[in-house]
Amino acid sequence: MTEQQPISEILVEGYSQRFVDAVRDVLGIEGGHVNDPLDSGGETSMGISLRFLVAAGAIDGDCDGFADFDLDMDGDIDGADIRLLTKGDAVYLYHKHFWQAYDCDSLRKPLGEALFDQAINGGGHAAKTMLQKAINALNPSKIAVDGKIGPLTRAVLEATIAREGIDTVLKRYREQVKMRYREIVRRNPSQKRFLNGWISRANRLGKY
Predict the structure, then answer these.
(1) Quick check: 116 and 102 in contact, CB under 8 A?
(2) What gap in Å lies between CA 111 and CA 104, rounded to an integer?
(3) Does the predicted model carry a pTM greater than 0.85?
(4) N or C: which end of the chain has fewer CB within 10 A?
C-alpha cells in the first residue's frame, strides 16, 4: 500500500450578497472602457483608473515575475492592461481595495454602499470626510473631519441615526457629495460637461 499524500488546504474567499449587490450597481454606473481626454480621471475600465491600477496592481502575488495586473506581461502596466481588464478583475479590485479597505460592511445599509460608491469615485479620504461633514451638519457638537471613521465617529453616527433616521443622514451625505462635485467644476471648468451625470449619481446614493 502506498503512503497517502497529505491533502492541501484550499482557501476559498466568497463575496457577501451585500457586496455583490453593491458592486453590481457600481459596475452599472461606471460602464466599460473610457479614455476621454477631457476627463480628469484619465483612462478607465469599469471605473478602474489606470493610475489606480498602476499602484494596486504592481505586486507579484503569484510570483510569476510579472506584476499581477501587467495583464499583457510586457513589463509595465499601461493602457493595454486597462483594456484587458475583465469584470472578474474589477470585482476583485473593488472588494479588496474599496469594500474591505474601508470596512463598508460595518456601516449600516445603505450607508456602507454609499461610502463604497464614493470611495471608488473620488477616493476613500474624500468619501469618509464627506460622511463626517454630513454627521456634523446634524449635530451641534462637531467631530473632527479627519477622514478617519474611528470609534468616536461611529458612536456619533449611530446616535445621529437613532435620533434623525438613516434617511436624513443619507440626504446630508448626498448634499456633501454634490458640493464636492460642484467644487471640482469650480476649480476646473472643463469638467462641467460631467456635472449633470455626477449630480444624478449623488441623488441615487443609498437607493439600491
Answers:
(1) yes
(2) 8
(3) yes
(4) N
Per-residue pLDDT of the chain (208 residues), as tens digits, is 445 555 444 444 689 999 999 999 999 999 889 888 877 778 899 999 999 999 888 777 777 888 889 999 999 999 999 999 999 999 999 999 999 999 999 999 999 999 999 999 999 999 999 999 999 999 998 999 999 999 999 999 999 999 999 999 999 999 999 999 999 999 999 999 999 999 999 999 988 6
Residue where the block lists cell 449635530: 139
Cβ atoms within 10 Å of 57's Cβ, excluding its own: 23
Q: Print burial letters for 174-196: b (CB count within 10 Å at least 16), e (below 16).
A: bebbbebbeebeeeeeebeebee
Phi, psi angle pair for 49, to nearest 5°: -85, 155
Cell numbers linked to 95: 472588494
